[in-house]
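re: ur question from yesterday

yeah so i grabbed the chain u mentioned. its 616 aa long if i counted rite. heres the sequnce exactly as i have it in my notes:
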Amino acid sequence: MMGTCIQQVFAAVCLCVFMTSPVMGQQSLTIADATTQGLSAFNTEVVLQSTGDTQGYVLAIGFDPSVLTATNVSVEGSDVESIGAELIAAEVLAEGMTLGVVLDAQSPFDGQVIPPGQSSVGVLSFTPATIATSNLTTTLNFVDGVFNSPPLDNIIVQGGLSIGAIDGLSLNSGTVTLTPPPPDSIRVGSTSVLANGSAVADVPILLSNSTGPVQGFVIAIAHGPNELTLEEITIEGTITESVGSEFEVANLYADGGTIGVVLDFMPPFDGQVIPVGNDQPIAIYRYSCNNPIFLPEADLATPLTPINNYIGEPPLENVIVIEGLSLNPSLQAGTLTCIAVEPPPEHNTIMTAEAVFDGTVGDYAYAGQTGTLNIYYSDPDDEIQGFTVTICYDCDLTIEDGTFSLDGSIVEETGAEYLNHQVDDDCSDGETGELILAILLDALPPFEGQTLPPTSEDLLVGSIQVTVDESAECNQLQEIYFCDNINGLGTVFLYNNVVIDYQSVQDYERINTGITVVPEEIFQRGDCNSDDKVDLADAATIIASQFQGLPVLCADACDGNDDGLVNLADSVYVMNWLFKFGPTPPDPGPFDNGPDPTEDELPVCDSNDTGCAGQP
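ran it thru and got these structure tokens back, copy pasting raw so excuse formatting
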């Protein structure tokens, strides 16, 4: 149909030209030679050499589909585009392409033409259909009478007449040479970081992909677990982010990390890819040094090694995806050097964390019990200007946000001018609970130089409430400990720090604490036979325990009237409640298990009811 349309338009053009003869002489259409590498897309052009004004033309070009795939044929970027053609009909076929152009096809027929001389009249776009292992040359041919219906010939229109090969128009084919691409590669960058216990370094992962645009990739990089910690893997600031990645999944391990990326993962499938290029950053691996290194110790260089079938669950290979195929690029390791720093000044500051619950419990607590976490300091020599305290705690504890208090502390007495605390009690992010405390004594005008005094005894800095969660298992230590490099509710990673003489000091002793969860006996008041219900049998058990020596598991449960004694009055109390509408036995009552709210001298229960998570 396109052939018919073009022929009809050319006929119309001919009718609009009166008494005009074609300009004869050597005229030609030539396809320019092109070269590409790997699967890189490329353009070439068709050039017209003419001796007269050209009013229109038809191009019909064939190629080898096993070597090339045509993607477009147009006048965009050619001389014809700047002249202004009014009719353009283009079609891309499996083995060829056609382009019909009429420059002046619409009223008022202003007479646009391609002037004599050399002009580009078409731009042909291709991608290689194969990856050449050695130089491969293929031909782009002008083909008459094959493509479209009816079949088209290559012609130019001058003076209202068609000029083709039989009329002397020279048709010069072109060549395309496919060259082998250099090896694709994934290279790990090399950098350094201060080994001061807090600094992190961003190591770029660099992609060189000459084979073609990358649709996705997997990276697996190993490191020495004793030297480094992989803090994060991200695509922020990389070409992966800028082209619009739609799927990323990263996993961190003690000895390495992996990331998988698919650029175009979701509808409308717009075809995002990482273009061909060299050393393009596609991911960032963020590391920290495990231990501070102080001069005169030497710097520590640790290899960062891309490795196949070692990192991940299951182990992954380093691959890139091009044209739907997974390719294994060459791999090049990098290095992260932990640089030794000046040692901190020696100080004998001691920071202590101590959890205090009911005095009768000591370092132990029941599930659900609330106590106080106290922070103390001692330093016999130095005046302290401020603290940053960073504490981690087990997820079965809750530090109660908003309860931090200076009551009774040396800080309250001295008068701190800046105080802030954060509690991050959300363990769903894979972290522990986090408490951050910042105190600066002299932070406001007139800057009178307030400090905390030297002391050989522990002085209270402040306190905050801590609760043992109901989910805490009995006989398990719930740790509360000083830790570094936590961010609480913010984004800045902080660490334990004491300010002395305007210097940051991190090399000092820290004494941690912990809470061991212990069973709290629970029972139903009146359930003397420990069968989890209160009825006449319990009154009989109370009497039998008093007069016949019947053993019972929980004396507190037999104490029906909660007077701290087990005797005949308890059986009468229970029967009055059961049958004479007497008062209900006191808390925890006859219906639900609970602890005894009153202290007495009765022996500890020997039942299985403890109120501990994971226990009956």
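noticed a couple things. The mean pLDDT is 89. also The radius of gyration is 42 Å.
anyway ttyl
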